[in-house]
């Protein structure tokens, strides 16, 4: 079975592979480093299949819960993705995309409070919003969905290249007491229930 990679991952893997081919006649060590860099870029952009459970509001990202706070009367939960996590993001619930909005900003480490001012993309649904946040290394957010598009729970909705964070602004009425996870807990995109519902 062929390995699956995030859309556009070859734009990161191809340049070092070409450098490796160029270096091959001149330096085996240099070519090896370049080929390893190409393989690492593909490994980072891996996109394994997931099996969503029958119900529940699902984690949008692989990583650790790093943010749980109330904001403007809604509960916000953030998942920090480090370099070893899968960076393909998934829809927590089924719904129709109402808007996809890019906001320019800084590139602070995604696990810090300052990352709230980072570059981000808001993907707004009827009942909730996903916020894809670029980190210190991540400089490219790649949404896969457009306004008016219907998505299913667990469907791929985008990816962020290199370490970053994805926040869910929960549907109205969801409180901390409804959460099935806690801060610091490891979660899996499209499989871990954040809220039983």
From TrEMBL:
It comes from Halorientalis pallida. Its EC number is 4.1.1.65. It is an enzyme of class 4 (lyase). GO terms for molecular function: phosphatidylserine decarboxylase activity. It comes from the Archaea. This is Phosphatidylserine decarboxylase. InterPro entries: PS_Dcarbxylase, PSD-A. One of its GO terms (biological process) is phospholipid biosynthetic process. The keyword Membrane applies. Keywords: Cell membrane, Decarboxylase, Lipid biosynthesis, Lipid metabolism, Lyase, Membrane, Phospholipid biosynthesis, Phospholipid metabolism, Pyruvate, Zymogen.
